[in-house]
Design goal:
Strand content: 15-25%
Order of helices and strands: EEEHEHEHH
Largest sheet: 3 strands, parallel
CATH topology: Ribosomal Protein S5, domain 2
CATH class: Alpha Beta
Number of domains: 1
Structural class: alpha/beta
Number of helices: 4
CATH architecture: 2-Layer Sandwich
């Protein structure tokens, strides 16, 4: 059981399906740019969105694409998931 809070400097943009898959939402690029301007250091997005996002204005943020919720957890908590 994972009982750790998500760090305050990580944002998530997308929709989680019933099977744990991540889906894109509308205006993805605008949303990621807004998150970058707000000072987040990382933004987790659906893998499909990672491919279509431009890099302009995203120099200070790491955009990480994930396929499902398991990928998100492994990305945010890599050390915790290695222990289990």
């Amino acid at each position: 059981c994972l009982e750790l809070p998500i760090p305050n400097d990580i944002a998530f943009i997308g929709e989680i399906g019933l099977g744990g898959e991540l889906r894109m939402v509308t205006r993805m690029e605008k949303r990621v740019n807004t998150v970058a301007k707000l000072g987040y250091r990382m933004c987790v997005v659906p893998k499909a969105a990672e491919k279509v996002l431009g890099t302009e204005g995203l120099e200070n943020i790491k955009v990480v694409g994930c396929r499902n919720l398991k990928d998100v957890i492994n990305t945010i908590f890599p050390d915790v998931m290695k222990r289990s």
